From TrEMBL, chain A:
Subcellular location: Cell membrane
Lineage: unclassified sequences, metagenomes, ecological metagenomes
UniProt xrefs under Gene3D superfamilies: MetI-like
Principal location listed in the UniProt entry: membrane
Annotated keywords: Cell membrane, Membrane, Transmembrane, Transmembrane helix, Transport
GO process annotations (BP): transmembrane transport
Transmembrane domains' residue ranges: 9-27, 100-122, 129-149, 169-191, 231-257, 277-303
Membrane topology, from the record: Multi-pass membrane protein
Natural source organism: marine sediment metagenome
This protein's name: ABC transmembrane type-1 domain-containing protein
UniProtKB/TrEMBL annotation, chain B:
Organism whose genome encodes this protein: marine sediment metagenome
Protein's name according to its UniProt entry: ABC transporter domain-containing protein
Keywords of this entry: ATP-binding, Cell membrane, Membrane, Nucleotide-binding, Transport
Span of domain ABC transporter: 5-256
Family annotation (NCBIfam families): oligo_HPY
Gene3D superfamilies associated with the record: P-loop containing nucleotide triphosphate hydrolases (3.40.50.300)
InterPro entries (UniProt xref): AAA+_ATPase (IPR003593), ABC_Ni/Peptide_Import (IPR050388), ABC_transporter-like_ATP-bd (IPR003439), ABC_transporter-like_CS (IPR017871), Oligopep_ABC_C (IPR013563), P-loop_NTPase (IPR027417)
């Protein structure tokens, strides 16, 4: 298990390095540069600025300088925002995105497992039909539509009741987080519900469940001890990619709900070709996702002995 | 004295999109303590379904027990989960299945799976039950039992898993063990070991074994009594010697001739039974074996034969055993004095 963890962490470092290099190369191949806007008024100023940021050196040298700085944990300073270090931007805004993302993933996983198990237990009966209809809706409707609709209905509910159940937008308290996290996790929750339903049905008709019943166990014990753990395995497999999808897909939801997350800076930086911010946010996001995927794999190993011991 | 376990006139059917399948059509049998009853028949004849129905393991719906009763020491238990405060499944009746590879939970260690039965039925604590599970693994001759108990099914071989299954089934010292084709998925040497183990445990505990199989060699080795099933009915029932030496039903005879032997002359060539079993959506009015029987008569088509008593504990459902029937069929045992349908 320890060896496996070490191996996965090493692979993760390689992956992050690859992400960093690919982003660096891609970024420098985009036409234009961060100084070609209105900041470089004439050739002298431009040359000074290039010297200041090291942009006058060959790209390979820039790459090595950048990598060395990155290993020291220094992502540099922003080109477009005055006196702001990329580290500050990340430190300030990443926790917001991460909290939202993790909350959304939790919603998605718990809801998916719960509803999936329910639909399987009530297969081909009314609860199954209702939930499966909602699942199709959840998969096919994009999150910004849900975001807007949920805000609208929340406003209406608050009006009718005369007091505010949940804040409609903004950030700060737990009550601010609930609605955006739910909206952000909805698509994944729907997908996981489907997955859980089918794997649950498969498990329910398996031989070892028949054995468990022949042992005279109660249905609740069979469900909790034998069905759930086996049925949840496929859901955990997709948890890694789901975390990636949710955290990177959070930008739109962050915008709609006016949440000061990292997503906005990420997109802005690409539009303005803010080299250091692009690199910083991409590498940081990449490292975060790689770490989460490794974590998911370790959880998978913990649940499935066949993975852990082979 | 009533038998330990008896099943009377059991009918099981399944509602499917194509209609109602009459999987089991009125079977009766009984087994005493320390006795082994083998239920033999080809695939789909209802042997597994009937035992699963008795245990309450068939999904309902689509399954349904139309009529019939099952008694343990004279008490009805069909449809009940407990009898005199003891659970039927796992406590009074243990069960092992055909494919040990898929019959154990892949994400739970062997010891816990055995211990679970004891925790539920005997109220053992976790540690107590686990310690007992290790003893049980030793009993079924698994080496290094305490280490093995902490391992998972994928770390066991097929034969070892079947041993673990047996340990699980006998954990609560059941009075009846139902073994549903326990050796079908195993190779021949392991088969022999598992059968010997079952026999040994039976001698120690005095439990009754109901052995479901399609292998006549296994029957000859294990059984005291045999019931031959065909198309959801028991067509012949006898002691193991009578069944092999006085086969009174053409189907039993057919099964015997289809068995490989180690003699090489033409008389011992394998003779398969031609044709296939009847459609159980609409079972024939007469004898179900009629279409495949080399000696079928007019009466066989229209009327289902009653069980003709041929000897002590030996009956066959075949018109050829009718007292007025001529006795000239080669290989088929026809008793000189046959009593008609028993009460």
């Amino acid at each position: 298990m320890w060896w496996y963890t070490l191996k996965r962490l090493f692979q993760g470092v390689i992956t992050v390095w690859f992400i960093a290099t690919a982003t660096f190369i891609g970024m420098h191949n985009v036409p234009g540069d961060p100084l070609s806007g209105d900041r470089a008024t004439n050739a002298t100023i431009r040359a000074n600025l290039e010297a200041r940021y090291g942009l006058d050196r060959p790209v390979t040298e820039q790459y090595f300088i950048y990598m060395r700085n990155m290993l020291r944990g220094d992502f540099g300073i922003s080109y477009t925002q005055q006196n702001r270090e990329v580290n500050d931007i990340i430190r300030e805004h990443f926790p917001v995105s991460a909290t939202l993302g993790i909350l959304a993933v939790l919603f998605a996983a718990m809801g998916g497992i719960l509803f999936g198990a329910l639909t399987a237990l009530f297969r081909n009966r009314l609860p199954d039909y209702i939930i499966m209809f909602l699942v199709i809706l959840g998969i096919s409707v994009p999150s910004f539509v849900f975001a807007a609709l949920s805000q609208l209905s929340l406003v209406n509910m608050n009006n009718v009741l005369g007091f505010s159940i949940l804040p409609v937008a903004g950030w700060g308290t737990v009550s601010h987080m609930l609605l955006p996290a739910l909206v952000l996790g909805l698509g994944t929750m729907a997908y996981m519900t489907r997955l859980m339903r089918s794997s649950m049905l498969e498990v329910m008709s398996s031989d070892y469940i028949r054995t468990a019943r022949a042992k005279g166990l109660s249905p609740t014990r069979i469900f909790s001890r034998h069905q759930l753990r086996n049925a949840v395995l496929p859901v955990i497999t997709v948890l890694g990619p789901a975390i990636a999808a949710i955290t990177t897909g959070g930008f739109v939801v962050e915008l709609v709900f006016a949440i000061p997350g990292l997503g906005r800076y990420f997109v802005q930086a690409v539009q303005q070709l803010d080299y250091t911010v692009i690199m910083g946010t991409t590498v940081f996001y990449g490292a975060f996702l790689v770490f989460m995927v490794i974590l998911v794999d370790l959880v998978y190993g913990w649940i499935d002995p066949r993975v852990r011991l082979q | 004295m009533s038998a330990l376990l008896s099943v009377d006139n059991l009918h099981v059917e399944f509602a499917t999109y194509g209609g109602i399948v009459q999987a089991v059509r009125g079977i009766s049998f009984s087994v005493d303590a320390g006795q082994t009853l083998a239920i033999v028949g080809e695939s789909g004849c209802g042997k597994s379904v009937s035992m699963q129905a008795v245990m309450g393991l068939i999904p309902m719906p689509p399954g349904r027990i139309r009529t019939g009763s099952a008694q343990l020491r004279g008490q009805d238990f069909l449809g009940k989960t407990h009898l005199d405060g003891k659970a039927i499944c796992g406590d009074e009746i243990g069960m092992i299945f055909q494919d040990p590879m898929s019959s154990l939970n892949p994400t739970m260690c062997i010891g816990d799976q055995i211990a679970e039965t004891l925790e539920v039925h005997r109220g053992y604590s976790r540690t107590q039950a686990f310690a007992r599970a290790i003893e049980l693994l030793e009993l079924v001759k698994i080496p290094e039992a305490s280490k093995r108990a902490r391992q998972y099914p994928f770390e066991f071989s097929g034969g070892m898993l079947q041993r673990a299954m047996i340990a699980m089934a006998i954990a609560c010292k059941p009075s009846v063990l139902i073994a549903d084709e326990p050796t079908t998925a195993l190779d021949v040497t392991i088969q022999a070991q598992i059968l010997d183990l079952l026999k040994e445990i039976q001698q120690e505990t005095g439990m009754a074994i109901i052995l479901i199989t399609h292998d006549l060699a296994v029957v000859a080795r294990m059984a005291d009594k045999v019931a031959v099933m065909y198309a959801g009915q028991i067509v012949e029932s006898a002691s193991v010697d009578d069944l092999f030496y006085k086969s009174a039903h053409p189907y039993t005879l057919g099964l015997k001739l289809a068995m490989p032997s180690n003699k090489s002359d033409a008389a011992h060539q394998l003779q398969p039974i031609a044709g296939s079993p009847p459609d159980l959506f609409s079972p024939p009015a007469g004898c179900a074996y009629c279409a495949r029987c080399p000696w079928a008569m007019q009466v066989c088509q229209g009327d289902n034969p009653p069980p003709f008593v041929i000897g002590d504990g030996h009956y066959a459902k075949c018109w050829l055993q009718h007292p007025q029937q001529e006795r000239d069929i080669d290989g088929l045992y026809q008793a000189v004095t046959v009593t008609g349908a028993p009460a």
